[in-house]
Amino acid sequence: MIQTQLREVQATLPESVTLIAVSKTKPLAALQEAYNAGQRHFGENKVQEMVEKAQQLPSDIKWHLIGHLQTNKVKYMAAFVHLIHGVDSFKLLQEINKQALKVDRVQDVLLQFHIATEETKFGLDLREAIALLRSSDFIELKNVRICGVMGMASFTEDQQQIAQEFQSLVAIFQELKHTFFPSCEWFKEISMGMSGDYQLAIANGSTMVRVGSKIFGSR
Ligand SMILES: *Cc1c(COP(=O)(O)O)cnc(C)c1O
Q: How many CA atoms lie less than 13 Å away from 155 in the CB half-sphere?
């Protein structure tokens, strides 16, 4: 069942797009089944749950922390997390840097942007991101590497609106690439698209899709 769903999603993805199987709330057996089908990138939104799963599953899994992240949780995953998608403040970036330094890693992260009309979603706007990237405090952070951007579209049926929100994230990506990362080959990721909208996200330039219920069933 999971293998079939996974293959179905994989079959529609271009080679260049990374599929993150979002396994939050799902049992180990479900993740193992996806792993056995070849899946290696997994996404979780709670640090503790991710840590527990990582301890019990194969070590070649690449773990993505995709949800809102509290500063005091960073230390628990600093030794192994592959990519942190939800960075939306300098304070958080500073803590990630501090914990990465302790374990002698350079931590890859994405800046999360607020692209939806809803008030509730976390994320920076372009102005805030520019201020962050310009600050001398940021330049001092040697143990974090910003690899791109992440965003979540509004929860709506309006495809046009979702497409516009995805396009706004791509525009932000391009602006930052041009201004701050012109020769940085690692600044290349646009994490956007979930079960309901990942095809639209890819059509608009996504490089990473975060798909949960379409693979593992509803939560
Ligand atoms: C849960 C979650 C997803 C996956 O959602 P589905 O609709 O189940 O595909 C993607 N991104 C984030 C940030 C999430 O929290």
A: 4
